[in-house]
Structure formats: C-alpha cells, structure tokens
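Lab meeting tomorrow. Please check the following:
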Amino acid sequence: MMEQVELLERVRAYDPHASEDLLSRAYDFSVAAHGSQTRESGDPYYLHPVEVAGILTDMKLDADTIATALLHDTVEDTLATLEQIEGQFGSDIARLVDGVTKLSLIEMPHTEETRQAENFRKLVLAMSNDIRVLLVKLADRLHNMRTLKFVKSGGKRRRVALETMEIYAPLAERIGMHHMKDELEDLAFAELRPEARETVLSRLKFLREQGSDLVPRVTEHLQETLEAASIRASVTGREKRPYSIWRKMERDNVSFEQLSDIMAFRIVVGKTEDCYRALGVVHARYPMVPGRFKDYISTPKRNNYRSLHTAVIGPEQNRVEIQIRTQEMHQLAEYGVAAHWQYKQHADHIDGNQYRWLRELREILENASNPQEFLEHTKLEMFSDQVFCFSPKGELIALPRGATPVDFAYAVHTDVGDTCVGARINGKLAPLRSQLKNGDQVEILRSADPSPSPIWENFVITGKARSAVRRFVRKQQRSQYRELGRAIVKKAVRETNRRLTNETMRRALKSLGRRSLEDLYIAVGSGDIDKATVINAIYPDPTVRQRAGKILSRMRPRIGSAKDRTDPVPIRGLMSGVAVHMAGCCHPLPGERIIGILTAGKGVTVHTIDCEALEQFNDMPERWLDVSWDASTYPHQMHVGRIETVLSNTPGSLSRLTTVIANHRANISNLKITDRSSDFYEFLVDIEVKDVAHLTGILAALRAESAINSVERVRG
C-alpha cells in the first residue's frame, strides 16, 4: 500500500517543481469520494487509483497526469461530478478525467460489445487531443490486470483479459511502451490460455534445467567479444515472456525448438554509429541466421521504435536474438511517449509520424457506420506487423504486413485511395491485390472520378482502407436502393390504375415511420418495407387495398429453397434461397477472406480468396460473387478444418493429440491414418472449429507437445 507521503516523494524525485498541494488535494479528494467502497479483493477502493498513480510515477509523468490518475474513477464510481473536478482542480484535469471515464450503463443500455466499442470510441477521441489520457488508461488497465485474480466471475475475468489483449496491449505497443505491453499480454494470456501458458513454462523450465546458467554465460561471452573490439557496451540477457514465445509459435508456424529468440540479449552502446560497429563485430564472430536481420534505426517503426535486430548461432551453438541500441533508444523502446515527455507540454505539440496512426484512427472513426465497425477496423489495424514502402518521391509509408497497393493509396490520402485504378510496384504494373514487401516502391495510377470497387474489401488490410471502401459502397447502395424503391412503388401504384404524386407519398410517410421520401424509397429498395405495406399506407380505403392486394399477389415472385440448405449459412452477400456449399479443395473457415462461385443448378460454392481452384474461373468474372462471413452468426456454428499431423510411435501420443483438441473445445469428426512406420504415424484429422483463429490456436497448442513431430493445416 502506497501512502500519500511516498507518492509525493516519488514525484519530487524527478520533478522538484511539481505542485505538492495539487497532488495532496487530489489524493484526499479520491479517498473521501470513494469512502468505504471496496474492491473484490476486499481492499479499500481508493488504493486502486493510488496504485495507478504509482505506475505513472515510474514513467516520470507530470503532476496533472498523476492527479488525473488519483481522480480517474471518481466520476464513474462515486457521487463526484465533472463540475466538482473542474471547480477544485481546473479545466485541464477535468478534461483528462472525462477522457478516461467510461460511458455509464445508463448512457449505453446495450450489449457488452456495443459498450466496449463506444467506450473505445470515446477514448480515441480523447487521446487524439491529449496522449496523457491513454497513459492513464493503460496504467489503470495494468493495475486491474494485476488484481484480476480476485474477480469472482470467470466470465468477467475472461472479458477483461480479452479486451486487454485485443485493445490495450496493442495500444501500448503503438506508443512504444513495450515493457507495459509485454506485461499486459502475459497477464491476459494467463487468464485466456492457462494450459498453453503452463505448457510454455514447463518447456522453459526444462531448458533451464539443461543449462541453468546459460543466459549469464552467453551474456559474458558477448561482453568479452565487444570489449576485445574496443566497443564500450552494456550487455543484458533474459528469457522471453511466455506469451511472446507462444505468439511466435502461432504466427511463424514453428515448434518450440525452432524459435531463435527464447533467449533475448540486448546490447546498449553510446552512439548510433556504435550500434553498427557492434553489429559488425557480432556478425563477424557468430554465424547470422538468414532473414532475421532488421534495421529499425534507419527505418523506425510507426511508434518511433529504433533498434537493430539480428539472430545468430551464438556461444555453445544456441540460436539467440540480439537487439542493439543506444541508451536513448532503449528508454524510448521501454517507455515510448512517456520517455520524452516534457512537463506541462500541451498535447497539440505532440505530433510526428509516430502519432500518425492516431489521426488515422480519427478518420476510421468518422467513416465507420457504427461503433462495432470502428472497433473491428481498429483491432485489425493494431494487430499487424509492418512493411515499409516508398512513394515515387521517396516518402516512407509504414503499413501492416500483407498490405496491398490499395492500402498504400489510402495511407497516402483518402482521395488517392478513392481514385485508385491501378499500381506499379518497382516500375512494373501489378494487380491491386498484390501483397507489398519491404522496400517496394509503389506508384498509384488514378482516375478522374472516385471509383472504389466493393471487391477491394476482400483483400485490403488496413482499417482506413476498409472503412473508406465500405463508406463508398454504402453511398452507392443507398443511391441504387433509392432508384429501385422508386421504380417498385411506381409500378405497384400504376397497377392499381392510380397516379402517384409526391403529396400522395408524403401522406404515407408517418404511418410507415419514415422521415422523407428518400428514406422510404431506400427502405423499399432494400427490402425493409414490402410493396403491399406501402400500398396499404397510400390507400387506406379498404376497396382500393383489396384490389391492390390481388394485383400484388400476382406480381409476387416465387422463390424456392434449396434442398441441401436446411440451416442458415453465416455468409453475407447472398440472396435468400441460394444453395451454399463449402469447397472441399480449401475448407474455408470463418475469419478467412472468401469468394463465391456461382454454378447453374448447384448454387454457390465458397472458396478461400487464395484457393488455387479459382484459377479455372479467371475468364468467367460473371460467376464470381463478393461474399463475406457474417460475424454476428458464425460464432454459434461449427465448421470443419482439416489438419495433417505426424506423431511419434510412442504410448500416449494419440491421447495427447485428442486431449489438446478437446481442451480447446473442438471436436474430431474424422480421423484417418495415411502412413505408418516404426517411428512415426501420419494422420489426417477433421476438426470441428468455430473459425480460423480457433483452428490456429489448436495448431499452436499441438506444436508445443513433444509427442507431436509436426502438424499442418491441409488445404487440398
């Protein structure tokens, strides 16, 4: 428990001019406001804001930010008001407190997902004006995660951990606070995947037992190598956190033994040129692992992270990752924006490329049709690794890995994206769905008029591009629905031998619950209101309605349902009654980008976007359908994913396979032995999973098992 005196001493240690009166008043106000409130741990509630303030003192933040931390829960959880905060502590602190405060349940009486999205939307708006809002919010979340074990509800613990993993840890990474990001991820990992974490910990324990002093030995060896080359440096080594190891296994599709950075070593030198000298010495002394060198000094990450990364076959033939940086780079890597915070610096002065993503979030927010769509795009944006590309003028553009020329175009400017019609990559014409690589020079070919294609949504990666395409498509659809609806209504009225006038239509607006004729026509065109309802509203006279009803019944189309589609398939973009089949060549799963191929007499066959079988339809664009998974439906259904695995021919191997799958709440629907020998058995296994992320998690867990030699997803 941190007392008031200790908190003041911490702040005074790095800022002798900080207002002790302000901090003391904020401390006393928080204690009085929270009164006898307690947390689920049984501790007095006011200890939480005090601990949050303590976390921020480690970052050496200004007195206003520390005071905000002490007050951040008073408006949400006590009778205190923003007016009281402003009256006693000033408008700046009141604005910061309001930015951190969540929307109350009274303001948002909707689903948990909607509340989460709306809260995050408010946080983005606040932190785009003052980054300190995000720093307080992250410290608040970090302390909540440290005490998550005291929360009795398992559902609530999981929700908080998932929100931390999907939103707050990526946000910490985006502002360069890697130390906080690592702790948030590992705490969430412990709650979300306890068995997976224990598996990683047990493998790490085994490695330690095999070589208990390996890290200090390698550290000493690296130190001596640099000293022999007359390079003054500080060398430290550590084991990576369990989640970091697990994520690399899952992302890079490798086993535990194949990881080169279970042990990570950091070399801190005096000057930037010494970084490259040290790199040369390390590479001259130890063989480099091909493809693992990254220069984030000459091309910093978007959060301004700078360092050299390499992997080598180090002392005692161990694969190790090495980071080389200056002390200034190290401080920025650990504490990000907080490392170079200047006291009383106004938020408008905080700018630069590392905060470009905040402006992009504002653009996504303005284009999104609802809070959930905004949250979806933002998660997509924050979770991706980066590639660095250049414009023809040499401007450096950082994009998520897997980005396309369309993503590049929207990253340059929204107008460039809207008018994009083609691209040249390194001087050669390339398809717009091409994935960009590090160092590519990209030239965007433009038209005079905006013409984004709906098909772009199937391959763009960035949230900005996806939201812009959706906005344009919505605008186009609205126009098409309006014209279609007007034609439907005119034809229906004409069949009754009556003349349609705007005045006649306006009289029907109130009963139909529409504010304008445009809204009414759009509702009819999109199918929200049928023709019979419109005729009944236009002609209240029963005789006319009866005559119109007979005519409309003759006009109504007859739509048959396919025999093989008894349950709804969670796919958007298909008309009612169309038969749907999942392609056996690629086994598409929810979460993957998909394309529909229309076949006469059979319906629609759904393939993954990268399925090789699609090549045979390249000359038949009329058969291609733009479809996507309906995220509101597919989590409630199971789909089959196929894997191929090689097991050691030892007792219990098959049991480990089935146990891991069962522990991940998946079901084996088919299992077939394809090959056997004295040492190994090969199996094809069909697994019922919720989506591609579910299957990916199972694959990662299986790779962590020593009895399983290899496991891969089968596409054909």
